Amino acid sequence: MLRIRPFRRLWLVLGLASFGDWIGLLATGIFAAAQFQSSAGQGAAFGGTIAVRLLPALLLGPIAGVFADRFDRRYTMVITDLLRFVFYGSIPLVPLLGGSPGVTVAWAAIATFIGETITLIWIPAKEAAVPNLIPKSRIEVSNQLTLVTTYGITPILAALVLSALTAGLQQSGVTLPDWAAPVQLALYLNAISRLVTALTVFFGIKEIGGKSAERQREAQEQSMVRQFLDGWKYIGGTPLVRGLVLGIFGAFAAGGIVIGAAKTFATSLGAGEAAFYLLFGTIFMGLAVGIGLGPMIIRELSRRRWFGMSIVLASGSVMFLGVAFHLSMALVGALLVGAGAGMAFLAGTTLLYGEVDDAVRGRVFAVVQIGVRMVLLLAITLAGFLVGLGSSRRVDLGAFSVDVSFTRVLLLVAGAAGVIVGISSFRQMDDKRGVPVLADLWGSIRGRPLAPDEQFVRSGVFVVFEGGEGAGKSTQVRRLAEALEASGHDVVVTREPGATEVGARIRGLVLDKGDAPSPRAEALLYAADRAHHVATVVRPALARGAVVISDRYVDSSLAYQGAGRTLPVSEISWLSSWATGGLKPDLVVLLDVDPTVGLGRVDSRGEGTDRLESESRAFHERVRYAFLDLAAADPRRYLVLDAARPPEELGAAVDDRLATLLAGDGVTHPAPASTAVPPGPDLHAPDLQTPEQPTADSTPAAGSIPAADSIPPAGSVPPAGSTPAAGSVPAAGSTPAAGSIPAAGSTPAAGSVPAAGSVPAADSASSAGSASSANSASSVDSATGAGTRRHAAPHPAERHEEPPLEEMAELLGVNDDETPDGPTRAGHR
Ligand SMILES: Nc1ncnc2c1ncn2[C@@H]1O[C@H](COP(=O)(O)OP(=O)(O)OP(=O)(O)O)[C@@H](O)[C@H]1O
Ligand SMILES: Cc1cn([C@H]2C[C@H](O)[C@@H](COP(=O)(O)O)O2)c(=O)[nH]c1=O
């Protein structure tokens, strides 16, 4: 950020100005107090000068922004800084010129008031200039830097400098003349800092200067009053800006209420005077944590969502404080209030920087900056006043006794109001409607935010055929298309990969046996084919109302690249969801085939095999079980058929299901966004929820596939006593996880399935789903009258026999060099 020269200079200017502000604030108060002997006079002088600093915001705040929008921002900053140099510089000179204590304090107050009034013009000019100096993508970092500098570094530096000056002089025993006392020096420093910033802006940041055509036009055509009114109209009439401004105020009101109520709240905790300072400090610590670490934690989360969530966090934490009965709870609550308010401020200002036009930016930022101060002051004052009104009652909770005071009621009510504001601002601004909030938050924290659904009007029906090699997909696709066309439907038959010109080239790249792409490259190539296919073929056809029948879709990637290549299925799922914009089929017909049978059919076509067909049997077994797991996780949207049945029977079952679907009974177009949940870290059932599968009301996947990232390398042996991951070989003597393949001598859990990567637990609900993957579809069919029949031969997931050891090793890829990124080997079948 600081490599951008104009921003670096502006940041230095801001740092210096902020340092001047803080040292000026402290020094003016001390200076005024020092003019009096009595402690009452000292207190009044100190408090009075500080209050005077805050007062101008109330008076001039509303029109200050007009200056920033109407005039050249560079000149505005330079002139206002020069004026501040003069006024602040005059404060320590008054006593030197013989002014009495009363005159000195009065002038300190007047000069401070004028200086602060001028600051109100300087701030919006500076704020409005920032977005023109840096790329939009860096605005958040610049805000972080600015806030940390203003509220973190410079106040501490100012306090250190002031105390070092005082202590240094005291220790050295040097007696300086009155005009060079530490406080006077601090006041000179404050004044000089303005001169330096004026010169820096004038000579060093010329980029701030000039006016956009629109600003020029407005300045010429509109009076200041008109511009002022227009500014308010813009804020009130632009929902996003209005929501942001109100939200920021709400978050600060939450903080202010806690600060205002902290004293009586600390008493109600029975924690003593120190607890007040602790709570106060903790809120500011939370603020720093929110601003400093917030973006790092939420990463790619939509800033609009983050803003609403932060307000809810801040307000919810105020409510939590209302029920906290121990200081430790209160400190956690205070930290979260601060963090929420800090994040809301950062997200809000970042959004405002990005969303507000240059022409009105000065006015909007004036309202925000000044409004925040006012809201904070008001909230602190009001809360302080209100908590004094009610009485409290002590309630015994066994180990603890709590004061149910008016303070707590206030915190609860204020917190609840804040939560409502947060939720409504979230709703108003949400740019990912339909995407589940918590899943999106979790996905973003993990670096994979959910993609919002690509909006399009979809009136057609999307049917996908999936299954292993030679399952009979093409045969069934052709047959179904003919049947539908015969009954007058607009049918589009398509496939993946290779349905488009681009796709045909990709198909050559992934399937030709020449130079094999690495597993990740392979996944990306399939995703690229899919993205183009969906955008140019599937969506347009669905939009016009056609029945789209695709030979393979997302599940193939999850099965082949995820389970087959053992790439992290969650990542493949995310990638596919991104590629398709979340488009999911209405029906997936899974033709389940034993790889030996399917590959036998492929061989008998006599056309040779492609690169994927040539993979090992273990690979194809993993693919098969992955398909079954996906279907078991969402039986309502899958029709799983035993592909060993005659084609006509399969066709009849498909026809029946289609008839239901086309009659509208079964068509509820799946909501893509809600299902594009990036799976959790372990690939259990929900991890296999693909963009095809709704999370709500879906049955847990039977025999889910272990996360590729959690799968030990094929053939690895987990330590004895541990529970091996599905698909790994347990050490002899250890108890294998249900569904894992037991080593010789170990006791297999009931229901172990000889499939690498597939883990149906014998006694879990998921195992029921798994064991009946094919049959569960049968029962679904019978329920809908589709009437698919059960097969005499048990489905593989029902077989409990142990495969011979060599076969197991082959299934697991022991002796098989299939590593996620390693070269693939043409396997044997
Ligand atoms: N139900 C079935 N029973 C027996 N043979 C079938 C059946 N369905 C299709 N076949 C035959 O099996 C072979 C493969 O069928 P098809 O091409 O339809 O499968 P596919 O799943 O599309 O294959 P690929 O995975 O290679 O695309 C063909 O020769 C086809 O005639
Ligand atoms: C869509 C898709 C496909 N594959 C594999 C599956 C097959 O081996 C080939 C496609 O051949 P087909 O004869 O057209 O069925 O590609 C894959 O690995 N990943 C995918 O996403």
TrEMBL record:
Belongs to the thymidylate kinase family. It catalyses: dTMP + ATP = dTDP + ADP. PROSITE patterns: THYMIDYLATE_KINASE. Residues 710-784 have a biased composition (Low complexity). Residues 665-829 are annotated as: Disordered. The keyword DNA damage does not apply. Pfam families: Thymidylate_kin (PF02223). GO terms for molecular function: kinase activity. The keyword Nucleotide-binding applies. The chain crosses the membrane at residues 12-34, 46-68, 75-98, 104-125, 145-165, 185-205, 243-262, 274-294, 306-325, 331-353, 365-389, 409-426. It is an enzyme of class 2 (transferase). NCBIfam families: DTMP_kinase. Its EC number is 2.7.4.9. The lineage of its organism: Bacteria, Bacillati, Actinomycetota, Actinomycetes, Micromonosporales. It comes from Paractinoplanes deccanensis. The gene is tmk_2. Residues 804-820 have a biased composition (Acidic residues). This is Thymidylate kinase. Residues 465-650 form the Thymidylate kinase-like domain. InterPro entries: MFS_trans_sf, P-loop_NTPase, Thymidylate_kin-like_dom, Thymidylate_kin_CS, Thymidylate_kinase. Phosphorylation of dTMP to form dTDP in both de novo and salvage pathways of dTTP synthesis. ATP binds at G467, G468, E469, G470, A471, G472, K473, S474. Keywords: ATP-binding, Kinase, Membrane, Nucleotide biosynthesis, Nucleotide-binding, Transferase, Transmembrane, Transmembrane helix. It comes from the Bacteria.
